[in-house]
Amino acid sequence: MSYAALQQPIPVSNRAFASLPSAVEGSLQRIGDMLQLIEQSVPITKRVVHAGDSVYQAGQEFECLYVVNAGFFKMVNLSSEGREQVVGLHLKGDWLGLDGMATSQYGCDAIAMDTGELWAIRYDDLLRASLRTPALLTALHQTMSRELVREQDSMLSMCTLSADARVAGFLRYWAEALAQRGLRTDQFTLRMTRAEIGNYLGMTLESVSRALSRLARGDVIRFSEKGRRDIHIPHVEALTAFMQRGSAATAAVALH
Amino acid sequence: MSYAALQQPIPVSNRAFASLPSAVEGSLQRIGDMLQLIEQSVPITKRVVHAGDSVYQAGQEFECLYVVNAGFFKMVNLSSEGREQVVGLHLKGDWLGLDGMATSQYGCDAIAMDTGELWAIRYDDLLRASLRTPALLTALHQTMSRELVREQDSMLSMCTLSADARVAGFLRYWAEALAQRGLRTDQFTLRMTRAEIGNYLGMTLESVSRALSRLARGDVIRFSEKGRRDIHIPHVEALTAFMQRGSAATAAVALH
DNA sequence: CGTTCATTTGAGAAACCTCAAGATTGGTGG
DNA sequence: CCACCAATCTTGAGGTTTCTCAAATGAACG
């Protein structure tokens, strides 16, 4: 195999999203292309899961990576003394199980939050396939690297932002994640309880509730009539402004 | 190349540490073997750095990974609004620059805290070499995975532990990192200011200082006469006990 | 020996958590 | 369809932890 083959980009396809902003279009394409690449070049075992199902558990022997084709998943890190922390949330195109390569045992529990479909890929199959299809390798590396960056950003947020700002940041992150997958971003349903959001953001469920109430009071977000889990975001920029200025009132004013 | 070649372990050598505990021996060996493997199979450019030098900066184009052969480095994540967070500390055998593979730009600043030597490896060279030497690939994956797990553990600590417990955990982590590299672990010099430790742990420098004072009052640690940066740890287990029980007095009692 | 930076320690303020009560939601069986 | 139950969510009051501000001490270096 030539070196040039290693550098070839993931094949481009699926240009049906020209009307989307380019960054979002790029992500959508990247995810779609990656899934296509995997399906074409690696043996995969498809697996359907339902809300509450465990994909794998901490300590279990590492064999497979899982690529999310549909659904919504959380990664839970559990300390030896029982402290528990949601350390990641994953949607279509994300990989699960990357934490298992270090020690040959998974380091977290991966739990389905909804009905979904996973593609299980044996790590040894992936390595073998990457000899023929080097783009697989760069896709894996980019995925791992992106995950590292995301965790670093989480640490930055948790250490430097107030509780209110972290909640605003979470909503913005969530809206972005949905946009990257071609879903509507102005209105969506949080599929997590306040307790789960709080755990992910390092605060209590009461603090999450209060933060959301303050965001709603400042008209940065609106609750749907259907329930307090449906959230309408008139202007994503208002969330950003809120994070920086630290006051819903200021954020609302800043837009007009 | 056969599939079997992909699975072969990193060559074993350097069995001179039989007296060390096996986990530590394993790590020492792993690090030494990895460095040897890299030196033998990839083109590297050695680079000497001094305290304060920047290895790379956020936004700079990603080309190289850096393996630490000597010295001590911090990774600093900087948000667009100027919030700043130390997201990682790295010693011999660690890789720097993994955060650059996602976007082809580094995501953090990497800064030398001390005189040290880095081995720069071009990412494309690494991919090419990994065709001949598949162990390089598994070493890279294990490194990235270990880093993911470490960051997840950081998040768990920052979200679920008190300030005192986080400082105790930091000292324990540090002692472990030194032990894994064959250095003495009962007494060492913190090469960071209280402010840097605090930034890394998500608290203020005053909180770090108070936590260290409480640890010293409980005789979990002792300050050397030479200065408050030299720390003596009589029993590493006392740090663990302190983290779990949340009181230096209890931790001291628990040992006798 | 003085200047500068780092560290310690205290007192008061702010953010967040805990506890508790009541409201809302979603599902279930009558 | 309605009533009821369990789970979730909101909101308030008070407590705890951590931060902020300030001052004094200690260490490093010319």
Task: Outline the fold blueprint.
The structure is a homodimer of 256-residue chains.
Chain A: H1 3-7, H2 22-41, E1 45-49, E2 54-56, E3 64-70, E4 73-78, E5 84-90, E6 95-96, E7 109-112, E8 116-122, H3 123-132, H4 134-160, H5 163-180, E9 187-189, H6 194-201, H7 205-217, E10 222-224, E11 227-232, H8 236-245, H9 248-254
Antiparallel strand pairs in A: 1-8, 2-7, 3-6, 3-8, 4-5, 4-7, 9-11, 10-11
Helix pairs in contact in A: 3-4, 5-7, 5-8, 6-7, 8-9
Chain A binds a DNA duplex (30 and 30 nucleotides) through helix 7 and strand 11.
Q: Which whole number gives the mean pLDDT of chain A?
A: 89
CATH superfamily of the largest domain in chain A: Jelly Rolls
Structural class of chain A: alpha+beta
Oligomer, anyone?
Answer: homodimer
Number of domains of chain A: 2
Question: Regions of chain A with pLDDT < 50 over 5+ consecutive residues?
Answer: 4-18, 248-256
| Tally of helical segments of chain A | 9
- Assign the CATH topology of the largest domain in chain A: Jelly Rolls
Strand content range of chain A: 15-25%
Query: Residue share in helices of chain A?
Result: 40-55%
Q: What's the story with the biggest beta sheet of chain A?
A: 4 strands, antiparallel
CATH top level class name of the largest domain in chain A: Mainly Beta
Shape-level CATH architecture of the largest domain in chain A: Sandwich
Distance between the termini of chain A: 58 Å
Strand order of the largest sheet of chain A: 1-8-3-6
Radius of gyration of chain A: 19 Å
Biggest chain-to-chain interface with counts: A-B, 50 and 50 residues
Number of strands of chain A: 11
Overall spatial form of chain A: globular
Order of helices and strands of chain A: HHEEEEEEEEHHHEHHEEHH
